[in-house]
Amino acid sequence: MRFSNKNALVTGAAGGIGAAIVRQLRAEGARVAVADRDVSGIEADAQLPGNLLETGYADGLPQAAFDVLGGLDIVVNNAGVITRGKVTETTDADWDLSVDVNVRAPFRISRAAIPLLAARGGGAIVNTASCWGLRPGPNHAVYCMTKAAIASLTQCMGMDHAHQNIRINAVCPNEVNTPMLRTGFIKRGFDPDTAVAELGKTVPLGRIAEPEDIADVVLFLASDAARYMCGALVEVNGGKAVG
Ligand code: NAD
């Protein structure tokens, strides 16, 4: 039980990777507050539904989690959206949505969480970036840019807050079998099971990631086993290092 007596906030908790993180944190003893637009179906210790586009909600989430759980030790900024297309196909609305959910919300949540974690003697923040934040892939210009931004912010915050015993790191997955990936296939007219199987053939390990493969690394980064890691961008890619 690595997370006994630990309190955690997880955003994007209703999504594929977020739900796995919540399940695994709770299985290892953590008390977890879940944040997403609809958290009604999620087993958790506290439910904090809301829209991360509302700045007051994002600003207030860490304190709300702290109050309802009786403390806060771990924050997982996992919520995200993907917009597809080259710059010439990207609308202002795509830009605003991508930047606001993928960058501004974790910035606001981290800014509010850091003093709370520091007052308790430290803690951990884990951000979900992407391998596309490290090396861009084609036809997702603004998504890649936002993931590069959160990767950079993770490195900066990891450096700036280490002296407060707050470790801030990011996980950088390649393709993961979640609603985000599957709805993309459906929108493009592909059968998602067939497309996931085909995509798996391009991965040296022979399959794309399941959400639990990513959650395991998030839990490691949140745990004391990662006690000397600050500002790390940890790629989780089955051996497929490029977009
Ligand atoms: P998902 O779509 O299953 O989950 C994302 C969750 O974020 C959803 O539950 C959604 O409701 C929530 N969310 C989005 N906008 C929100 C808003 N405005 N307010 C509140 N909640 C909001 O996707 P996932 O694959 O589980 O993605 C989790 C994270 O992993 C994302 O940051 C994503 O960019 C990243 N990622 C995913 C993949 C992949 O292949 N699936 C690869 C690399 C990185």
Automatic annotation (TrEMBL):
It comes from the Bacteria. The keyword Oxidoreductase applies. InterPro entries: NAD(P)-bd_dom_sf, Sc_DH/Rdtase_CS, SDR_fam. The keyword Endoplasmic reticulum does not apply. PROSITE patterns: ADH_SHORT. One of its GO terms (molecular function) is oxidoreductase activity. Keywords: Oxidoreductase. Belongs to the short-chain dehydrogenases/reductases (SDR) family. This is Short-chain dehydrogenase/reductase SDR. It comes from Sinorhizobium americanum.
